[in-house]
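Good morning N.,

You mentioned wanting to compare the apo and holo forms, so I went ahead and generated the holo version with 4'-phosphopantetheine. This is what I fed in:
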Amino acid sequence: MNKGIAIYPGSFDPPTNGHLDLIERGAKIFEELVVAILRNSEKSPMFSVAERLEMLRELTANLKTVRIDTFDGLMVEYAKSLEATCILRGIRAISDYEYELQMALMNRKLEPTLETVFMMPADKYSYVSSRLVREVAQAGGPVRGLVPEVVEQKLREKLDPAYKLRDARQIEVLGRRNFAKLEKKGKKKA
Ligand code: PNS
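and this is what came out, ligand included:
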């Protein structure tokens, strides 16, 4: 176990199974892990900071060394205020690397005493991102297995019309298929 506090910063809009996987891995190697949600008024998030805080708290309730918090402004300043020594970030694929490298080097420039530690989530989550989860859910698509159940439930509540619209579309498609089948049968008989 690594001594000291590590920060796992991010937007978590919404938290995914990939995030949770990384939190569990981080909790094993750091004495204390603070999952820090960025309060960014510029973006228009799907979930409010309060909703994300609540979801993450519920999801990590069993992890005694994990704490959920929010921050504003420069992440390194927030990290310093907690006397954290490490920043934890996840890397899924090579495409993440460039952005993460830039951010890690900028953070090092801003605060040389803070180390960024990269961890990889389980490969089954290597394609899962909050952005894609939002996109699928906004179209009423299934997100089971990509996000924890509590998040899936919240997405369904928030996007109820999108899910209803997709159900209606699927019923329409089934209806058309059945009609085509009946028509085919009718032609054969004739
Ligand atoms: O999950 P995300 O959206 O990729 O997380 C990005 C985050 C929140 C870690 C990053 O945008 C951040 O730290 N923002 C705070 C402002 C800051 O310190 N910017 C300089 C980073 S190089």
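The two ends are 77 Å apart (CA to CA).

Happy to go through it together on a call whenever suits you.

Best,
F.
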